[in-house]
From TrEMBL:
The name this protein goes by in its record: Response regulator transcription factor
Keywords carried by this UniProt record: DNA-binding, Phosphoprotein, Transcription, Transcription regulation
Record-linked PANTHER family: TRANSCRIPTIONAL REGULATORY PROTEIN NARL-RELATED, TWO-COMPONENT RESPONSE REGULATOR
Domain spans labelled Response regulatory: 3-119
Domain HTH luxR-type: 147-212
Keyword rRNA-binding: no
This protein's record includes keyword DNA-binding: yes
InterPro entries: CheY-like_superfamily, NreC/VraR/RcsB-like_REC, Sig_transdc_resp-reg_C-effctor, Sig_transdc_resp-reg_receiver, Tscrpt_reg_LuxR_C, WalR-like
GO MF annotations in UniProt: DNA binding
Species annotation: Actinomadura darangshiensis
Single biological process term from Gene Ontology: phosphorelay signal transduction system
Positions where 4-aspartylphosphate occurs in the chain: 54
SUPFAM superfamilies: C-terminal effector domain of the bipartite response regulators, CheY-like
């Protein structure tokens, strides 16, 4: 059972999401909150697998809440909820620790599938949106020398895998490109996240772009 926490300042949005997710046999909404501070408290209380987090809320906004959740021990997967997929808030949310984003207009039939994908630890966004957002982040990157120093400590194979993450590739596509098994790629990705201090593969992809890879 995948447990989900909803954080949005509009109760009607939460009710809509609860109805859609509640119809799935393997997904259960365990709670909801209507501002960022309450969202962080709810994460500690319910320990959900996935958090759907609105970015623009009064008081403590979604960006601050994502940062606080990422700092928790064994944090859940956080997926940003947004109205516009090119919103600068999305880039900032990914850097803060979000594993991806969903448009609030996501069709109901796709929402449950994407929540399952997020629960499995995969990035939740279209390939086109990934490249657009990573490109935006790259254009505005700071601290590139530090990033390149981090990447310089990787093995050749780890650097190749990181470059693929910078392109937004899945484990299966990385395996095909580098002629490795998916299990081997998964191991490389896990070690990369530890070495680079990244919360998820999305952050690693952003770092790859910052370093000029991908």
């Amino acid at each position: 059972m995948i447990t989900v926490l909803l954080v949005d300042d509009e109760p009607m949005v939460c009710a809509h999401l609860r109805t859609i997710l509640g119809a799935a046999g393997d997904v259960r909404v365990v709670g909801e909150a209507h501002d960022g501070a309450a969202g962080v408290e709810a994460v500690v209380r319910y320990r959900p697998h996935v958090v759907l987090m609105d970015l623009r809320m009064p008081g403590v906004d979604g960006l601050t809440a994502i940062e606080r959740i990422a700092a928790l021990r064994s944090p859940p997967v956080v997926v940003a909820l947004t109205t516009f997929d090119a919103d600068e808030y999305v880039v900032r949310a990914l850097r803060a620790g979000a594993a991806g984003f969903l448009l609030k207009s996501t069709p109901p039939e796709d929402l449950v599938k994407l929540v399952r994908v997020a629960a499995d630890g995969h990035t939740v966004m279209s390939a086109a949106a990934t490249m657009r957002l990573l490109g935006t982040a790259d254009a505005r990157a700071s601290g590139r020398d530090r990033t390149r120093a981090l990447v310089g400590g990787l093995t050749e194979r780890e650097t190749q895998v990181l470059a693929c993450l910078g392109e937004g590739l899945s484990n299966a596509r990385i395996a095909g490109r580098l002629h490795l098994s998916e299990a081997t790629v998964k191991g490389h990705v896990s070690r990369l996240l530890d070495k680079l201090g990244c919360a998820n593969r999305t952050q690693a992809g952003l770092l790859a772009r910052d370093a000029g890879l991908g």
